[in-house]
Every structure is written in C-alpha cells, then in structure tokens.
Design a protein that fits this description.
- The complex is a heterodimer of chains A (106) and B (255).
- Chain A has no helices and 8 strands.
- Chain A is mainly β and 106 residues long.
- Chain A has a single domain, classed as Immunoglobulins (Immunoglobulin-like, Sandwich), CATH 2.60.40.
- In chain A, the strands form 2 sheets. Chain A has a 5-stranded mixed β-sheet with strand order 2-8-7-4-5, with no helix packed on it. A 3-stranded antiparallel β-sheet of chain A has the order 1-3-6, with no helix packed on it.
- Chain A is elongated.
- The model of chain A has no long low-confidence stretch (mean pLDDT 94).
- Chain B has 255 residues and is mostly helical.
- In chain B, helix 3 crosses helix 7 and helix 8 crosses helix 11.
- The N terminus of chain B is likely disordered.
- The chains are: A mainly beta (106), B mainly alpha (255).
- Chains A and B meet through strand 1 and strand 3 of A and helix 3 of B.
Chain lengths: 106, 255
C-alpha cells in the first residue's frame, strides 16, 4: 500500500491558480549503497511523476537517485473546468500509484 | 533603611513578574530554518505519513479478540489518547517494570487483542506510536509521579552520567557540558526527547528515541543496548523527567 498525503483545493474559480502539494512514502533506494554484508542494494526509485487534468498533462517531473526518500512535490496549475486531477507516480520494480482528486470550478 | 527595604521589595516584585527564562531548548531551536519549516508544515513533514498510517492501523481489527484499538478506545485516537504520550514511560504493574509507548502498544496487543506483538521499531509499530504520540502535540511533558519508577529513573540518570565506549564519553559530557557547540559539522542539542518518534533526514525515515540512543552509543563506539532493553527505558525515563514541562512536537523533523 502506497501512502500519500495530498493537499489541493476541492473548489476553485475559473482562471484561478491552484496549488497541489503531494508527499508519498517511498524508500528512494539509490542503487549505490551496500548492506551490512557488502551486497549492493538494488535501485528502487520513483522515476516519473505526472498530473493529468482531465485528459491534459499539466505537470510532470523526472526523479533520479539523488532525490531524498518520501519525495515532496508541489506545483500549480490553472483551474479551467470542473473535472478530475489524476496524480501518478511510477518507479522501479513496476511501482505505480495513482490518486484522483475531484475539482469543481465555478 | 526604609529606602533599602523599598528597593528590596521592588526587586522581589520584579523577580516574580519575570521568572528566570528556561535555559532548556528543544532540538528544534538548533535546526536550520529550512528544516524548521519542514517540521512546521504538516504537508511537508514526512512524519505525517506514519501518523496517517497509524490512524488506519488504529481501526484495523487484530488478533483472536477481533477488536481494533478503536473498539476499546472510542472512535478516534484524538480524544482517548490525548496526553498519553506526555506521561510515558509508565509503570506496568503486572510485569513490575517501566514500559515505553511501543511496549505499551504491544502489551495491549498481547493482553487485550490477543495478537502477536509487533517487532520493536517495525514500520507498523512506529506508525501506531507516532499516531498516539501525535495526539499529545503541544502538550507539556508530564513525567509520571509513580513512586515505583524512582529506582528506574535513578538508573537512567546513572547511565546518562556513565562514561562508555572507546571514546569514553557520557551523555552528559556532550549534551549538558557542550550543548550548543559543534561536533564535527552538527550542533550538539540538549537531548530533550520532545518530538519522538522523529523523522530524521539522516535516516530518511521515522525512528524512535531508542534508535536515537543506540545511534549515540554506536557513535561513542560502545556496544548499544538491544531494542526494548531495561537500560534504554530507564534512560527514556530520566530524559522525560529532565524535559518535564517542555512541549511535545511529534512528529518532529531532525537533521
């Protein structure tokens, strides 16, 4: 179970700039560290974050090994029409997690 | 003479109006502004991920009893658990020894839920502990006045002052005698356990006070006590008494 915390407005006026803030629990293991026995710990990171507003891609980010564990990503977009925001994190070992938010625009 | 008495009275009055400032400082005060901001904003504070998971675990039915924490302790942890973390470690009468919050949660699992104890420092137990401790955020630490804790607290103080390890250092030498000064690149805090479990940037995760204590012991090249050891609980007891009255910050962020 991926754990996420998301802060975003539920309603906005048309044309308003809204801020979306996200936090996801993830180890972001770099692939460069070794364990107590000297074995290399395999890389396990999130490498892409996307936000779709309806069908439109409004924000995306690429993440790399230097990003800390439990990455915090905040961004803004313009409220254009009522719809859903879908936030997706994708990573190594088939990691994929999606959260959807309903936004009402008046 | 009359004038002198007046001056003394004024002096005493001023002393009552302005008590000496508490010299104790939370580790929060020694951090950079960026790390302080990370702690202060619940949305940026990664410790809140554990608090949120703890809230879910609080509702989960466990063990042969088929009961969740919430089934006994009212619906939410908020009213039932407020102030609980502030008085831990507490004395457990059946085992006749002090227990910390993680151990208390495990005792509740074993005795009431008839479930297996969670491994100490496991993600699930840390989540439950942080969820319970979070309910006391903002409250002052109020150490238990139970007389039966006295010998254990005294043991904790003795351990705090005991030089250990190849570096032959006691807790006191760093955290009382040289607090505020630097050890390598980092500032020595005063060792007040105000925000546990804490999210440490160095750990890239949440950890308990016992993990912090063990880290310090390894740091002075001593063999650390195992998780759940009586000595660690005794140290927790002494540190709680030493920090009595300071505000709880759980989940705190530390560098």
């Amino acid at each position: 179970m991926a754990r996420t915390l998301i802060t975003a407005p539920r309603t906005a006026r048309r044309g308003e700039v809204i801020e979306i803030r996200t936090l996801i629990a993830h180890a972001m293991e770099t692939g460069l560290r070794v364990d107590a026995e000297g074995r290399k710990l395999p890389r396990d990171i999130i490498h892409r974050f996307t936000c779709r507003y309806g069908d439109e891609l409004v924000f995306s980010a690429e993440l790399f090994a230097a990003v800390a564990a439990n990455p915090y990503i905040a961004f803004s977009t313009v409220a254009t029409a009522s719809g859903t925001l879908s936030l997706t994190w994708e990573g190594d070992n088939g990691f994929a997690h999606t959260e959807t938010l309903a936004l009402t625009v008046t | 003479m009359k004038g002198l008495a007046w001056v003394v009275l004024v002096g005493a009055g001023a002393a009552v109006a302005q008590p000496a400032a508490d010299p104790r400082r939370s580790g929060f005060d020694f951090m950079s502004a960026a790390t302080q901001a990370m702690q202060a904003d619940d949305m940026q504070n990664p410790g809140m991920l554990w608090v949120a998971e703890g809230a879910a675990l609080w509702q989960r039915k466990e063990g042969r009893s088929g009961r969740s924490c919430a089934d006994c302790h009212e619906a939410g942890a908020a009213p039932a658990m407020r102030g609980v973390a502030a008085r831990y470690p507490a004395f457990d009468a059946p085992s006749r020894q002090p227990v910390n919050l993680q151990q208390r949660i495990n005792l509740c699992r074993e005795r009431r839920q008839h479930a297996a104890a969670l491994p100490l420092e496991s993600r699930e137990l840390l989540s439950l502990e942080s969820h319970v401790a979070h309910q006391s955020r903002g409250l002052p630490i109020t150490p238990s006045t139970d007389e039966r804790l006295r010998p254990f607290r005294a043991l904790g103080q003795a351990l705090y002052e005991q030089r250990i390890g190849q570096l032959h250092l006691s807790c006191r030498q760093c955290h009382d005698d040289h607090a505020g000064q630097r050890l390598g690149g980092s500032t020595l805090p005063q060792a007040h356990p105000t925000g546990y479990p804490v999210y440490r940037l160095e750990w890239q995760g949440l950890g308990s006070l016992q993990r912090r204590l063990r880290g310090c012991m390894t740091g002075v090249r001593a063999e650390p006590f195992p998780y759940g050891a009586q000595e660690l609980v005794a140290l927790e007891l002494y540190l709680a008494a030493r920090a009595g009255g300071m505000r709880i910050e759980t989940p705190a962020v530390r560098p």
